[in-house]
Request: fold
Amino acid sequence: MASSPTDAAVALTRLGLGARPGEIDRVAADPRGWAMGQIRPQGAPQPSGQFADTAERVAQYMDYQSDAGLVRRDRRAAASATADAAPAPSPAPAPGMPDAADPQAVARREARQTARRDITQDTAQEFLARAQLGATTDDGFAERWALFWSNALTVSAAKFASGAFVGQYEREAIRPHVFGRFEDLVLAAEQHPAMLLYLDQARSVGPDSLAGARRNAGLNENLAREMMELHTVGADGGYTQGDVTELARALTGWSIPAARDQRQPGRSQRARRIAAQAEPGPAGFVFRANVHEPGARTVMGKTYPAAGLAQGQAILRDLARHPATAKRLSRRLAAHFVADDPPPALVARLEAAWTGSGGDLAQVARALVDAPETWTPQPAKIKTPYDFIVSTHRALGTRPQRIQPLRQALLDMGQPPFSPPSPEGWPDTAADWAGPDALVKRLNWSRTAADLAQAANPNAVAAAALGPRLGERTRLAVARAESRPEALTLLFMSPEFQRR
Reply:
């Protein structure tokens, strides 16, 4: 199939994250081969840096939780002491706060605050490393593909408990699986601590389980509902509220490690293991047999016998293989990569690749690259703020250097790092990102980026970033600008650069 610089520009902006200097020329010989070569069994590239893995973060999080328990105990003790104290000339400590005279209580509170700050800062650095990867990688298609799946199976740092694990989630549950089977990807995602904490699965207790009979706790349906509505078959997939409840019952016992697993006086190690982690799982996951709802479950017309951990896994795998899942996610892929209202023929191609391969995402990715609808030259997608910032760095041949300016820019433009507003993930249409206020925010950032840019020739930057996609009107506007910052600002805000 013939190739051209136009195909290279389409590949780098639509399938990738934007062109870097000289990249359109390098890719022009074989744009489809450029994308196909990134579909590798090992998954998407990983951000560079030394970051805690899931097991290490679990240990940090357990320490943080233990400190939290001690701080709560200190506060209760302080409140009790305040209530019991006789009137005194000097004011008593505020109820609910540790007595400043108790150095151990103060130290515990400060240790907890430090632990929380360290985790938050580490997560921020992971986001910076991810943006730096996006700005510099030669594997733009693999990176965009990974970002799509991270958003489709979203977790959010807006909630600290899940945010503590969001970097590990993307690095360990998402990126290694994005070119494997979908059922393996979704299982890794659902069993990761980030997802279990984000959707409150770790606190779900089977009412008729051993623990449920003793505790004032009950079923939490959040994970089950999002598994069905957002992660697999979709709201039109034919399930009922009864199916959600049945799945929630099957998922009871899916949890994360806790400090109490290691310190239960009077119980043998074997007894603790039976109660807390009856079956081994991936890092950061435990199956708690004592909170699992006993009995068979029926979901979408199929009955699953009692089997502990395997029961929920079997249901999830069947949901992942369901035709409704292939149909819904194929459309979402087409809408993300090509157009808000995707061509039906493209959706059909992706769905056929999905069902024909049993959910092999590598085959789905190849079908996307092969599809003629993918290569139409007219851009139809608006870049999200993250895409916009990353593609600007790519155009300039730079990368974000510090987290604070990056975080502030994304916050101003409405897409704060690792913090989608709901389990639906970040929106993906022009209506969501191209409003008047949003464009003003992009203009403000473009001016700042242009002022700081070291690029010597804005005309060369425009030609290298857009190639044949650079329209005559934008080319003339850049060429006739009164200053280099003005020229770059006009480039970054041009329709060709804002769309992909």
